[in-house]
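Per your request, structure below.
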């Protein structure tokens, strides 16, 4: 037998360091040497089971660490679903490993694989490029040519639509093309999806969210299984965004939920299988009794020190000689380090088969084969310390590793060989302690170094010496040793302080700290209803749970976990009493959790580290100390999560059944539910009539600003293009998603004849939407108005549970469908027509808008006919079959069209003013028509025998004619001022004829403006009167108050007087012949000798009066004409003296101006 170990092992080098899906997808040799492990079988069972059951869930995301074999697993699924002859070898391996799983993947499925490898670019562009590349492997056809023609990579469009928007249609066309070529469908593999997510986080407006959502929706079609989607990631969506300094919106998390999680990570024990396949030991070793005895003993002892689990790989460890020369501590540690600080299987295989210094090949080349010589932790430390380095994600672990390397590097000359080996072993154990739950105790270190049973005292002595040199620190609580990094001493003292607390106090504190504020998503409820709901999980003593069970915080319900000591029946009885007394209206479940010894210990340890952490935070120690404590706290928290959550998820053998309680009774069959399933059961029970809404963008209480804007555009499209299919929407704007999910799929907007229209739900509509409409009927068909906020609040209650987003859209749709019978009020005022501006304000301030439906009111048809007759007399239109709401709307609409003067004047009869007041203050159509209006018009004093319809007609007529009467007063005042008799037409004609040429000669601005308006013939009569009113009293006629009418009369007479005096001066010059035909100028000499002139109108009427006066005077004086002239002169003189004092100054001014 050769001395060197290298001659007894094969170290098979066929293993490929990495798989590239875009390169290896169609390579027949890409899966050579692939090993199907139990973890692989678990994934295949989950995916194959979904396919076999024809589940609509056909999109998955495989989550696993770097290098764990996710890409190779995707390649394996492609081979199995392809089912060609080239897949026979791997299929046979699967059949040998598990015939049941192999049965889920029958041969001959012939599904075409399409692969995308992640990069920091747009997902839509990458998919388009992959489709083009895949066309090379499909037969040439007209559909393929057409798809190529429509796909523009340079312009980043498909069918002239941006790629990220057109992903759904591109995939649909590609699946159809693949099927036409003989395949059953497409398997889409997206490797390194995280890189696309990083790009999306850096470019949130690029539309990658919509791309991924369309991919998931296409794959999850209820009846079409043409597309399967498998994505590969090494962490969750938000972790990628944090890696580039960004955060993802809630919509990304909801899109993530469309992909079923498929965890994939090989346990430590499976790495032993990889090692056996890589080593390929020859019979000289595997058949040697000394090797067999030594190897089996070592691996049997390894389970007692937690390097491997006792129940795992018992068959393999029964032949542990096949793992020589790998010591179990080194093998387990190498597996964990590869997973945590390397690239999982890739790093492990590099160690097993590579040529790095210190790796297995290098060790075997310089080591003799002997059952007493093994590759231990010190040798592993040497490999790790001189290799390419570890990829630390924890700064504290990196600091401790650097400290260990520094101490070992400096102290080699001063320390014994055993002490150096101990330090190297402790350094490696610190790297894996969190994962393996291994501690560097003397017993473990003795095992790791293969020391005999007599050696522990020697090891303890060496460790004590290292402690005295302040290199190691002994931890009393656990009995192990750690490197004495500077902060550890202070932390150890703080930890010892926690030992003074009682175990019960620490246990309940640990429960409260570990599970408080935890939220659980009701996943199954979300998948079935489309509504994402969560429960707040509160945990603690029964009394504490009782106090908080009604406080859901931002969640939709609550699950109260009452922890009791399994060994204390009185605590169990108290918990049962509390669970049976929870209020029935609470959306809450309770459960009694019986804590065993291991869970109790984990909770106590966690509570201690919480106390230490609080002390460190309060003392403002150095950041390294805080980081170390946080690491210890996280480890304790993970331990609690493993034990307590395993207990909650029924994963602990022998633990008591965990039953949930609802409304005081135990839930049948709840013993098998985990927290998410219990939450789903709770919401299914509470919201049993919830409508199905598969649209995360709107199905929330607070939609984003973009969706709010899309909601507004949706109703604008309903108003303008309600008769068109899809409301005439092209492409995929957000409003289309709202329309499809809330109106089209619910059959609220459907085709009737040649057009599309809104229709109320019927038997063909989803039952959930029918229930929503029934609830809206109940809310609005009452004697009281109900606010918009109250409506959405009631829809959110049990049993509907509709979020504010869809509730607001359905509520407005209900109003539009029932606009003839539904009244909408804003701050108490009836809205005659619901406009887009009203909707904007209603969505912003739902408390200020109220609704009421009136078609259930017992209407008095005779009263409606009275209103129809009265409104018909003033130009309104009300049908005889109209409702109260129709009549009220027409009355208010008629009133709103009245000028402001009519709405405010007091120059009306008392009963008309009273009617106007009730119309102005009306908030309830029924009260207005049936109570308020009859009350003010019935029994009016002095009109007791007059009917209601007569009084109503009279009052509406008086109110409607009030402005016309004002116009008549203005016209009469103008006629009197200008001394012109006749109609308004005659007045305007005469003024135009006389004033047109005079206006240009006037100098005074106000008089000139007035005369110019008088001469304007371009305006209608109404506008001419309004123009005159505006120039005289500086206020349009329709907004006059009662005070403006007498003021107008005074000012018009003043202006006309000034105009006539100006004419009296100007006419003698002969410039205004037209005015001379209608006016007579008379000059008188007063007794004082002063002359006075008068300008008097002359027309047929005044001539007739003059003839009569002359005839009477002539007769009276016996025909003495001189006497007649003397009498007339005396009369004129008297008239002149009465007005002389007022006119003297103005006349002087006129003379000065004319001169």
């Amino acid at each position: 037998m050769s001395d060197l170990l290298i001659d007894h092992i094969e170290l098979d080098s066929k293993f490929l360091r990495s798989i590239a899906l875009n390169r290896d997808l169609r390579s027949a040799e890409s899966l050579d040497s692939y090993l199907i492990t139990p973890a692989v079988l678990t994934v295949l069972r989950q995916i194959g089971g979904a396919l076999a059951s024809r589940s609509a869930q056909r999109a998955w995301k495989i989550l696993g660490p770097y290098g764990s074999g996710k890409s190779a697993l995707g390649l394996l699924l492609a081979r199995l679903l392809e089912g060609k002859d080239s897949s026979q070898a791997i299929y046979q391996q699967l059949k040998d490993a598990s015939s049941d799983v192999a049965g889920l993947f029958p041969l001959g499925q012939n599904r075409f694989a399409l692969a995308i490898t992640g990069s920091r670019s747009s997902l839509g562009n990458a998919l388009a490029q992959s489709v083009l590349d895949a066309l090379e492997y499909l037969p040439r056809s007209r559909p393929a040519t057409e798809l190529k023609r429509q796909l523009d990579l340079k312009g980043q469009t498909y069918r002239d639509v941006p790629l990220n928007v057109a992903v759904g249609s591109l995939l649909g066309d590609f699946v159809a093309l693949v099927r036409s070529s003989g395949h059953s469908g497409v398997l889409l593999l997206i490797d390194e999806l995280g890189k696309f997510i990083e790009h999306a986080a850096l470019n949130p407006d690029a539309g990658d969210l919509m791309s991924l959502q369309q991919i998931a929706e296409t794959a999850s079609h209820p009846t079409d299984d043409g597309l399967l989607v498998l994505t590969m990631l090494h962490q969750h969506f938000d972790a990628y965004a944090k890696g580039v300094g960004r955060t993802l919106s809630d919509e990304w998390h909801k899109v993530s939920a469309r992909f079923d999680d498929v965890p994939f990570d090989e346990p430590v024990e499976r790495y032993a299988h990889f090692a056996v396949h890589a080593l390929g030991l020859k019979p000289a070793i595997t058949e040697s009794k000394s090797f067999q005895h030594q190897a089996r003993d070592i691996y049997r002892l390894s389970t007692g020190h937690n390097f491997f689990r006792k129940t795992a790989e018992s068959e393999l460890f029964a032949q542990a000689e096949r793992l020589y020369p790998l010591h179990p501590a080194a093998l387990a540690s190498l597996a964990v380090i590869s997973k945590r600080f390397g690239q999982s299987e890739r790093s492990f295989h590099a160690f097993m088969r590579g040529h790095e210094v210190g790796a297995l090949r290098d060790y075997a080349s310089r080591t003799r084969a002997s059952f007493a010589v093994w590759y231990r932790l010190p040798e592993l430390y040497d490999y790790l310390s001189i290799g390419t380095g570890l990829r630390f994600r924890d700064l504290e672990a990196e600091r401790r590793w650097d400290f260990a390397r520094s101490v070992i590097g400096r102290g080699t000359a001063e320390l014994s060989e055993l002490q150096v080996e101990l330090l190297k072993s402790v350094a490696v154990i610190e790297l894996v302690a969190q994962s393996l739950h291994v501690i560097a105790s003397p017993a473990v270190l003795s095992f790791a170094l293969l020391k005999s049973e007599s050696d522990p005292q020697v090891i303890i002595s060496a460790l004590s010496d290292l402690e005295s040199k302040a290199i190691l620190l002994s931890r009393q609580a656990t009995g192990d040793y750690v490197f004495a990094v500077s902060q550890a001493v202070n932390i150890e003292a703080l930890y010892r302080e926690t030992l003074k607390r009682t175990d019960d106090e620490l246990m309940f504190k640990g429960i409260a700290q570990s599970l408080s504020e935890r939220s659980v998503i009701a996943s199954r409820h979300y998948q079935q209803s489309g509504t994402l709901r969560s429960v707040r999980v509160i945990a603690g003593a029964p009394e504490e749970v009782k106090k908080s069970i009604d406080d859901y915080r931002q969640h939709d319900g609550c699950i109260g976990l009452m922890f009791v000591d399994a060994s204390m029946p009185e605590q169990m009885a108290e918990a049962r009493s509390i669970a049976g007394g929870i209020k029935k209206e609470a959306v809450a479940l309770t459960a009694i959790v019986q804590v065993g010894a291991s869970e109790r210990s984990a909770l106590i340890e966690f509570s201690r580290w919480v106390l230490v952490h609080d002390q460190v935070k309060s003392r403002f120690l150095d950041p390294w100390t805080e980081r170390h404590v946080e690491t210890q706290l996280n480890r304790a928290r993970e331990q609690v999560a493993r034990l307590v959550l395993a207990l909650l998820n029924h994963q602990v053998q022998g633990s008591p059944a965990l039953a949930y309680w609802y409304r005081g009774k135990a839930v049948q069959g709840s013993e098998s539910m985990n927290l998410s399933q219990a939450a789903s059961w709770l919401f299914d029970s509470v919201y049993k009539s919830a409508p199905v809404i598969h649209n995360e963008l709107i199905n929330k209480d607070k939609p984003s600003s973009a969706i709010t804007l899309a909601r507004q555009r949706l109703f604008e499209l309903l108003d303008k293009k309600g008769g068109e299919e899809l409301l005439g929407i092209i492409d995929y704007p957000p409003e289309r998603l709202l329309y499809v999910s809330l109106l089209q799929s619910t059959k609220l907007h459907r085709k009737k004849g040649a057009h599309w229209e809104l229709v109320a739900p019927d038997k063909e509509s989803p039952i959930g939407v029918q229930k929503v409409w029934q609830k809206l009927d109940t809310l609005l068909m009452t004697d009281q108005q109900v606010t918009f906020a109250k409506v959405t609040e009631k829809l959110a209650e049990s049993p509907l549970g509709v979020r504010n987003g869809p509730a607001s859209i359905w509520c407005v749709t209900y109003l539009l469908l029932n606009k003839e019978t539904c009244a909408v009020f804003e701050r108490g005022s009836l809205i005659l027509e619901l406009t887009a501006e009203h909707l904007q304000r209603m969505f912003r301030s739902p408390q200020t808008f109220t609704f009421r439906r009136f078609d259930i009111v017992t209407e008095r048809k005779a009263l409606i006919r009275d209103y129809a007759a009265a409104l018909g007399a003033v130009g309104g239109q009300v049908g005889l079959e109209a409702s109260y709401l129709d009549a009220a709307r027409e009355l208010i609409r008629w009133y709103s069209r009245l000028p402001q003067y009519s709405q405010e004047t007091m120059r009306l009869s008392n009963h008309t003013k009273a009617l106007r007041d009730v119309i102005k203050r009306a908030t309830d159509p029924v009260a207005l028509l049936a109570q308020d209006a009859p009350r003010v018009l019935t029994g009016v004093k002095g009109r007791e025998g007059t009917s209601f319809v007569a009084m109503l007609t009279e009052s509406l007529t008086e109110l409607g004619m009030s402005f016309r009467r004002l116009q008549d007063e203005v016209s009469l005042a103008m006629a009197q001022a200008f001394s012109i008799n006749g109609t308004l037409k005659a007045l305007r004609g005469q003024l135009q004829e006389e004033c047109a040429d005079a206006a240009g000669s006037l100098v005074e601005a106000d008089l000139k403006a007035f005369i110019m308006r008088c001469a304007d013939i371009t305006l209608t009569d109404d506008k001419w009167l309004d123009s005159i009113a505006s120039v005289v009293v500086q206020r349009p006629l329709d907004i006059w108050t009662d005070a403006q009418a007498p003021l107008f009369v005074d000012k018009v007479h003043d202006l006309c007087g000034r105009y006539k005096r100006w004419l009296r001066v100007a006419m003698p010059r002969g410039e205004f012949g037209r005015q001379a035909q209608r006016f007579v100028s008379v000059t008188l000499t007063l007794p004082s000798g002063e002359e006075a002139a008068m300008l008097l109108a002359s027309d047929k009427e005044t001539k007739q009066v003059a003839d009569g006066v002359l005839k009477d005077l002539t007769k009276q004086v016996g025909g003495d004409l001189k006497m007649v002239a003397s009498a007339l002169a005396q009369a004129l003189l008297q008239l002149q003296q009465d007005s002389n004092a007022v006119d003297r100054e103005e006349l002087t001014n006129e003379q000065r101006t004319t001169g």
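The CA atoms of residues 710 and 734 lie 6 Å apart.

Regards,
D.
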